[in-house]
Amino acid sequence: MISVIIPTLNAAPGLGATLESLLEANRLGMIAEVIVSDGGSCDETAQIAEASGAKVLIGSKGRGAQLIRGAEAARGDWLLFLHADTELSPGWEEEAGRHMAGAFDRKAAVFRLGFAASGFKPRLVAFGANLRSRLFRLPYGDQGLLISRRHYERLGGFADFPLFEDLDFVRRILREGGRSAVSLLPAVAMTSAERYEREGYLMRVLRNARLVLAYHAGVSPEELAERYNGRLRKKSRAHGKAALDGAGEDPPQP
């Protein structure tokens, strides 16, 4: 059975839809539990999670740390890490079931990326992300991650990084098992486009690319997160409350 682990920080607007997309799998008896690992939300995130029957863990914020806490508390044989603003498309449970039946504990799976927005720009960004996932097997956290507990623990789990904890872990999966160690499932992880629309699609894609290149060049996740947070603080002073609201977020994943 699957333990679903969702890291949250002031995630009330999208969490309900994320949890609703898990209902069919729960009805089929595939889900052992849903764990919401919260980083100290000041909105109704915890109440929404508890009302759905999820287990809520509250601790220090930081996506890496929150994922680690959730995994340590999980009791399922399989772990599904899912962002709080990501809704899985109908039928995902059938594809996940087939993957788990044939993976022999050593193969992870992710979903195709989609955005909950219309127009050419979100489709183009999603196309690029899915092409990268197919060609290089380098998905990011927005696409979810399904992995057996044994494989997760064998690889050492997520690192307590403020940024790129997902990329770091996927690279370890690939180093051990090669390209075939990560499967791209046909179901879609439909994620919010709010940050792209707020920052501008081109600006966000370029910023993400700069962060990824710096990470591959050896800049630490801590330094990259500080650069990002410093930019947000500067933006908040220039533009007021809208940017200040964003300054409370974890550094978003590319």
From TrEMBL:
User: What transmembrane ranges does the database entry give?
Assistant: none
Which regions are flagged for Basic residues bias?
230-240
The GO terms describing molecular function are: glycosyltransferase activity
The source organism is Parvularcula marina
This chain's protein is named Glycosyltransferase
Q: Which InterPro entries match?
A: Glyco_trans_2-like (IPR001173), Nucleotide-diphossugar_trans (IPR029044), Trfase_2_rSAM/seldom_assoc (IPR026461)
**Origin organism lineage:** Bacteria, Pseudomonadati, Pseudomonadota, Alphaproteobacteria, Parvularculales
Q: Enumerate the SUPFAM superfamilies for this protein.
A: Nucleotide-diphospho-sugar transferases (SSF53448)
Q: Where is the Glycosyltransferase 2-like domain?
A: 3-95
